[in-house]
Specification:
InterPro entries: LRR_dom_sf. The protein is α/β, with parallel strands linked by helices. Among the domains are: about 100 residues, no CATH class; about 150 residues; about 130 residues, no CATH class; about 100 residues.
Length: about 1250
């Protein structure tokens, strides 16, 4: 119940005075009698209480006077009662009217959601609550998994509290509860298990940043529900990894607690052992999962160890094994035993897919991963798919793996070789791929069934490209070849090697030579097995003849030394270009010429590629059911195409012997050639077709359906178009579903019933009529999907526009990227007319533009908006050019009168001055005298040095491009890296923030600062952050600038000298400032070479002049609080020589609120002298070096003055007198060499009891 509703109901429970109702009724009767004229009531008042003054004269008719007085009193009392009653009613009705308005809105919203069926509402709620892994930004993947699961559960719990229906639906969605990890509170994990019911869960354990006791407690909770486990993950994502000895004991504890665990639903097991475990400890590590009962285990991932055989390994079908070096491995110490690997492989009798990774990445010599060579290899007779990845490996770590196994039936193999051969990169200086690959593919008999082979080579050499040999001699039986050599050059193939009978070739990232391509494809064509359509390329490049390459033998080839990367963009090629080269080398009219087959090249993705590829998430995944309804029209077109197609009249092969094109032309027929007696072309008999549907007889209701079909066909003389006409009548062909709001959904229900009847009839008929199976089965399938389409259309069509607009906005809006938002909105707006109408009217989708958006899109967004626009221009030295900036500004400035905010930022290194200068000049040229009449906020940010050149005036105009703009409404400005110059709009500025970091270079120009501030007479809020150790001496002789309207100011001095801070503050006069923050960083205190100027002198120079801040009442003083970690180390360094800080209270006469955050030493007491300021509120935070008597003496003096009302002390401590073991009972009084320990001071924190004892007067509130 809302507060308005509560107020309405509470006021409605009062009483109206007796006689008020009759009085009000009389009033209404009089007004109604006079046709609603209010003057009727006034006439009655004039009659009862005449306006003439009472004349006090003697009269004998006293009785008449008594009657007149009584009548007037009665009228007066009646009006008083009526007035009070009407006031009560007026107030009550007003509140009830407001409450009823909210009730109407609530009912409208409830109606939209209430008419959604449970299945559609379940999809909406699941999408709202579910958090995917990539929705959580984190350094480690495991953190993303844990965070996403926690966010999902929290969102589901919050939504389930909305109403009973939401709770009923959400608690039955297993996708919201089936990701459970030990980061969850134990109560949450238990709740998730209980809400799963019969569903299965994913269980995650991450050792990173959590105590082992918490992990073990989670294990105790989760094992009670082990029957619900579907996937189990154990990994260590901490960096550096946990201690190896601790990990070993944790494995022991987990093994004891999960001994003989029953996990009958577990299908996936992943265990990653930490690198920190030493070799000898690793060989004896407990395999806690080996005692579990996992009869359905089909997939296993193990990293850092060789598993031991266990009972349920016989059901494994997919194994991913990662063998890597440890943190402390040496080159002569083996980590893995090949015999153990053979023993485990021997237990995997059902293995079908094998993936092995060997990672020898090191920063010195390659480690010896294996203790010895295997003896007898194990035959894995059911493995059909194998993948091998070797990183920075040589032959000594490849052979123990490959010699350990035999793969007699493997048909697909992926081989990845990764490494670096650059002298500038640490690690093994050269990887001999020509030595590694032959050890894997020794001959064609090793893998006799191999038909598909992928070679993925990532061999990086920063100086020159590498050559790589393809072992075609050992691949004599393959039919499909994929080469992804990542900018490596393919070596020539000797003429004596017989090429395999390839049917398809896919080249990705290869450096190709025209001679190699012509020779290779020419030889394949000569063999007669390869078809031209089987060739495809992706991101391949031609090699110019002058490029220097390096072969795997280490010898350079060619002598020009041209860097390949310099010419790379000019040599990009495609499948069409490759085939053109072949045709130029083989010009002949022979059949099968490559030029005849090139029509359309499809760049399909490389399957099994090990590189991580992240694509943009498809927007329609959130509205998947919407896409299915849209695709219905395409399926109907496919059905109609089948009905109207026939083979060509002459299907014979042409006389010149060329192969008939795969895109054979199909001519439409004037009449259908399919009749009742047509033979089925599907290759199935009637009995086989019936058996597929689980029955051998025809149902009883089939016969009337068949009678109707046959009757229609008979009347049309066997023409199938009669059945098509009946189908079109029952399921009318329609355009893609338009989700218009339907106030009467009964029509959708009638359509569903009609199409459902048609679908059932078509299903029964399709099981009985084998001759018509192609026609009827397609109609049944389309009818089924059409029914589903109508179901979904009814749900979405019933959503009102205002609710649907919220759904579309949430589906498309990206707060981090305006380009992504516009792209998503544009894509969805093309769905249908209603989508487009609604999305165009959502201003938040179009009012943000930046330079990453194409200019035509910028213009389109501005044209369809009537609201103000936010403009962002970000220039990066690495990928930005001046002409790109000019194009964006040209498109955006057409609507400059509607700019609400403008942000310009430049990022670049020390060599980015040319880019910065060019972009600034283009911006200044394109926006000269710009009309920005609606602009209120201006952001200018230089993250590196602003542009500089010899032509100072010209460059100043370019850097301060905004100075020519017309901005009459500008009220806020943020500038980083530059000091603005006066411009016409600065007179209206109310909020200014100047951030002048160290990267601005040069000396600080105080005169430029005062000049700009003088042009801001209406400034109310001023903030400045300064990091500069030097100041321009020519700017010192400046008059102090008076900023008369500033009421709030903040100054931060970091990495700058006290002299600079003092000069800056001396140049400013803030007569009306009442709230000021002064932050003097630690490096400003102790990084100054002028030792004679101490901090107390700095504070005196700032506050001693009473005319500088005469109205100051609130002061936030932060001194020496720059780095928390540095201050933490400072607490232990008590012997540091440091002059104590005496706070100048006597120069702050009007301050009533004081905030102190001081990391410097404060003396033991406050000296006697002038009265302290009339403080009413004192807050102290992180004052860690107070003198022992400072706070008591301060409170004593403030207590005498009697003004202090509130005291807050947070994390403050004072220096206790030097002692020895009395302060630390666990510390010895002697040093390690037997000598006595020097007495040391310690810090003692103030407690609440200490503060209450210090504040003896109860009027002071202690927080």
């Amino acid at each position: 119940m809302t507060s308005t509703d509560e107020c309405a109901r509470s006021q409605g429970s009062g009483y109206i005075e007796e006689g008020a109702i009759s009085a009000i009724r009389d009033i209404l009767a009089r007004i109604q009698k006079e046709d609603g004229r209010l003057s009727a009531q006034q006439d009655w008042v004039d009659e009862m209480c005449p306006p003439d003054p009472v004349v006090f004269q003697y009269e004998n008719k006293s009785q008449r006077m008594v009657l007149e007085v009584a009548r007037a009193r009665k009228a007066s009392e009646a009006m008083s009662v009526a007035s009070r009653a009407l006031s009560q009613l007026a107030e009550l009705v007003s509140v009830q009217a407001a409450a009823s308005e909210k009730s109407v809105l609530a009912l409208q919203l409830r109606t939209g959601f209430s008419i959604l069926p449970d299945d559609i509402l379940a999809v909406v709620l699941e999408d709202a609550a579910y958090s995917d892994v990539m929705d959580s930004i984190s350094m480690f993947f495991s953190d993303n998994v844990s965070t996403a699961a926690l966010r999902t559960v929290e969102a589901a719990k919050k939504l389930s509290h909305t109403c009973q229906r939401f709770r009923h639906i959400i608690t039955r969605l297993p996708e919201l509860w089936n990701r459970i990890n030990h980061w969850m509170p134990h109560e949450m994990a238990t709740t998730c298990f209980k809400r799963l019911g019969s569903a299965v869960a994913r269980v995650d354990i991450d050792v990173a940043m959590r105590g082992h006791s918490l992990i073990l407690k989670f294990i105790d909770v989760a094992k009670q529900y082990s029957a619900l486990w579907r996937k189990f993950y154990y990994y260590d994502s901490s960096w550096p990894h946990v201690n190896g000895e601790e990990a070993y004991h944790l494995f022991e504890e987990i093994g004891e607690r999960t001994f003989k665990l029953e996990a009958h639903s577990l299908t996936y097991l992943e265990v990653k052992y930490p690198r920190s475990m030493d070799v000898h400890r690793l060989r004896d590590v407990p395999h806690f999962y080996s005692t579990w009962s996992m009869p359905n285990l089909s997939e296993m991932y193990v990293g850092g160890i060789i598993p031991v055989p266990f009972a349920d390994a016989t059901s494994l079908k997919n194994l991913h094994l990662v063998l890597r070096r440890g943190d402390d491995d040496s080159s002569e110490l083996g980590r893995y035993d090949p015999l153990a690997l053979s023993s485990f492989f021997d237990s995997c009798v059902a293995l079908e897919e094998l993936d092995i990774e060997v990672d020898c990445t090191a920063y010195d010599d390659e480690p010896q991963l294996f203790t010895s060579r295997p003896r007898n290899p194990i035959s894995l007779g059911r493995v059909e798919k194998a993948s091998f990845t070797f990183s920075d490996c040589t032959k000594k770590n490849v052979e123990p793996v490959m010699d350990n196994i035999l793969l007699p039936v493997v048909s697909f193999m992926s081989l990845s070789v990764n490494g670096s051969s650059s002298d500038s990169v640490p690690g093994p200086k050269f990887l001999d791929v020509d030595d590694i690959i032959p050890s894997i593919l020794s001959d064609s008999l090793r893998f006799p069934k191999l038909s598909k082979f992928q070679l993925l080579a990532n061999l990086f050499n920063n100086e020159k490209p590498l050559r790589i040999n393809i072992p075609f001699g050992a691949l004599s039986n393959i039919k499909h070849l994929t080469l992804a050599t990542n900018k490596c050059i393919l070596s020539p193939i000797p003429e004596w090697i017989q090429l395999p009978p390839l049917k398809s070739i896919y080249l990705a990232g290869c450096y190709l030579e025209e001679g190699w391509v012509a020779s290779f494809l020419g030889r394949l064509k000569a063999q007669g097995n390869f078809q031209p359509s089987g060739l495809d390329t992706y991101e391949c490049f031609w090699i110019p003849p002058s490029v220097t390459v390096i072969a795997e033998s280490g010898l350079e080839q060619s002598d020009t030394g041209v860097a390949l990367d310099e010419e790379e963009p000019n040599y990009r090629t495609s499948s069409v270009e490759v085939k053109r080269i072949v045709n130029e080398h083989h010009r002949s009219p022979e059949p099968g010429c490559f030029a005849c087959s090139v029509d359309v090249i499809y760049h399909k993705p490389l399957q099994g590629f090990k590189r991580a590829i992240y694509a943009e998430k498809n927007l329609y995944e959130r509205l998947a059911f919407l896409l299915r309804t849209i695709s219905y029209a395409k399926e109907r077109e496919s059905f109609l195409l089948v009905q109207n197609l026939r083979p060509p009249a002459n299907a014979a092969i042409r006389s010149h012997g060329q192969r008939q094109a795969s895109h054979r032309t199909l001519e439409p027929s004037s009449k259908s050639v399919s009749t009742i007696g047509a033979r089925s072309t599907s290759g199935e008999s009637a009995e086989d077709f019936a058996q597929t549907y689980g029955q051998t007889n025809i149902e009883e209701e089939t016969f009337p359906i068949l009678a109707g079909i046959l009757h229609r066909l008979q009347d049309s003389h066997g023409d199938l178009s009669a059945q098509k006409k009946w189908f079109d009548e029952m399921c009318p062909a329609a355009e893609p579903a338009i989700f218009e709001y339907q106030a009467e959904p009964t029509q959708a229900v009638d359509d569903i019933l009609q199409v459902t009847a048609a679908r059932d009839a078509l299903k029964i008929a399709s099981r009985a009529l084998v001759q018509l199976v192609k026609c009827i089965s397609i109609q049944a399938t389309v009818a089924e999907k059409y029914v589903t389409t109508l179901h979904r259309r009814r749900g979405f069509s019933s959503l009102p526009d205002e609710i649907f607009a919220v759904v579309l906005e949430n589906a498309t809006y990206n707060p981090e990227s305006a380009a992504a938002t516009i792209k998503a909105a544009t894509t969805l707006s093309q769905t249908c007319r209603r989508f487009r109408r609604i999305m165009i009217d959502i201003p938040s989708l179009w009012n943000r533009i930046d330079d990453s958006i194409p200019p035509n899109i910028v213009s389109a967004c501005c044209d369809r908006l009537t609201a103000d626009i936010e403009v962002t221009l970000k220039v990066y030295s690495s990928d930005s050019e001046p002409h790109v900036v000019a194009k964006f500004i040209n498109a955006a400035k057409q609507h400059s009168s509607r700019w609400k905010s403008f942000e310009y930022s430049f990022s670049g290194g020390s060599d980015a001055s040319e880019v910065a200068r060019g972009c600034a000049e283009e911006l200044a040229r394109e926006t000269y005298a710009l009309d920005a009449s609606s602009l209120t906020l201006l952001y200018i940010t230089y993250y590196s040095n602003p542009p500089r050149s010899i032509d100072g005036d010209h460059l100043r105009d370019a850097t301060h491009f905004y100075s020519t703009w017309s901005m009459p409404r500008i009220s806020g400005m943020y500038a980083r890296g530059i000091i603005p110059i006066p411009f016409p709009g600065s007179a209206s500025l109310k909020n200014l923030y100047l951030d002048l970091p160290r990267c601005v270079g040069g000396r600080f120009d105080l005169k430029a600062l005062t000049s700009f501030l003088a042009s801001c007479p209406t400034l109310e809020v001023f903030r400045m952050s300064l990091c500069s150790m030097e100041i321009d001496e020519s700017t010192l002789l400046v008059e102090p600038v008076v900023i008369g309207c500033v009421k709030e100011a903040a100054f931060e001095f970091e990495y700058c000298s006290r002299r600079v801070a003092r000069l800056v503050m001396a140049a400013l006069r803030l007569p009306k400032v009442s709230n000021m923050t002064l932050n003097v960083g630690y490096f400003c205190l102790y990084g100054d070479s002028e030792l004679e100027v101490d901090l107390e002198d700095l504070l005196l120079s700032i506050f001693s002049d009473e005319s500088r801040f005469p109205e100051l009442t609130e002061l936030y003083l932060k001194i020496g609080s720059y780095s928390v970690s540095y201050m933490g180390s400072l607490l232990g360094d008590l012997e540091r020589e440091e002059s104590p800080l005496c706070l100048p209270f006597n120069i702050l006469p009007k301050v009533e609120f004081l905030f102190l955050n001081i990391g410097s030493t404060i003396p033991s007491s406050i000296p006697r002298g002038k009265c302290l300021p009339s403080l009413r509120i004192l807050q102290m935070v992180n004052c860690v070096r107070l003198g022992p008597e400072w706070l008591p003496s301060l409170l004593e003096r403030l207590e005498v003055q009697g003004n202090l009302q509130e005291l807050t002390v947070t994390n403050c401590s004072y220096v206790a007198p030097p002692t020895t073991s009395a302060l630390d009972p666990g510390q010895s009084d002697t040093t390690g060499d037997g000598g006595e320990r020097e007495p040391r001071s310690r810090f003692v924190k103030y407690t609440e009891d200490d503060l209450r004892q210090l504040t003896k007067v109860r009027s002071i509130k202690v927080l």
